[in-house]
Write a structure and sequence with these properties.
It is found in: Cytoplasm. By secondary structure, this protein is an alpha/beta fold. Helices cover 41% and strands 21% of the residues. Helix 1 links the parallel strand 1 and strand 2.
């Protein structure tokens, strides 16, 4: 069973989420603040975290950073904050998606399923080439790992999924809309700021000169291309 950690200090929202998630056979833990969330995450190892940013003891972005220090668990932010800067801050800290309050339960559950799906291992040799090497790093699609300078590179599930789509389409232009829909889901298509944030993160982690990328190439106004 998929285990969900719900982090929110509004009892009515927690209650609604717990009821809806359990009805769909999820196991659910709940935390009313950031400190409890970090403790429960370490103890219970959830498969996905649903996190409110406005917590009583710390900002939700700090919780994201605390989790990202040791885990790649998908993080779905749930917040009343609606400005683009705040959304990008949460995504940049390591969140995988952002749902604005008030929200529809069906949409939230669809986003949650997509976040869990992105974190699942990819197929093996039947997908064709599973190890892609560049001069600076190696992508193992079957093991879902990236190596650079002899060490594993830590990627979030969303970073990995974006990398996987680009690598599997190596040398071909992948449109912004296609990337958004494959990585975030079919209801996406215009949230190009998501792509900018995550491409910048991939370049920082994998390119030798992120400001002049060799492998993750932008085709302005069109999309992105992975080159070996």
């Amino acid at each position: 069973m998929t285990r969900v950690l719900v982090v929110d200090d509004e009892p009515q929202i927690v209650r609604a989420l717990v009821i809806n998630l359990k009805a769909r056979k999820y196991e659910v833990d709940a935390a009313p603040d950031g400190a409890t969330a970090l403790r429960l995450a370490a103890e219970r190892h959830p498969d996905v975290v649903v996190l409110d940013l406005g917590l009583p003891d710390m900002d939700g972005v700090e919780v994201i950073k605390g989790l990202r220090g040791w885990t790649r668990v998908p993080i779905l932010v749930l917040s009343a904050r609606q400005t683009s800067d705040e959304k990008v801050e949460a995504l940049d800290a390591g969140a995988d998606d952002y749902v604005t309050k008030p929200f529809g339960m069906d949409e939230l559950l669809a986003r949650l399923r997509a976040a869990v799906r992105r974190a699942e291992p990819v197929g093996g040799a039947e997908d064709g080439v599973v190890v892609v090497e560049t001069e600076g790093f190696t992508v193992d699609l079957a093991a879902k790992k990236v190596h650079r300078d002899g060490r594993d590179v830590r990627l979030t599930p969303t970073e990995w999924h974006l990398l996987e789509v680009l690598v599997r389409n190596g040398g071909r232009l992948v449109s912004q809309k296609q990337l958004l829909q494959e990585v975030w889901g079919p209801s996406y298509g215009t949230e190009t700021n998501y792509l900018r944030v995550y491409m910048a993160q991939l370049r920082r982690k994998l390119e030798s000169d992120p400001s002049h990328p060799r492998h993750f190439v932008t085709e302005p106004g069109m999309g992105y291309r992975f080159e070996r």
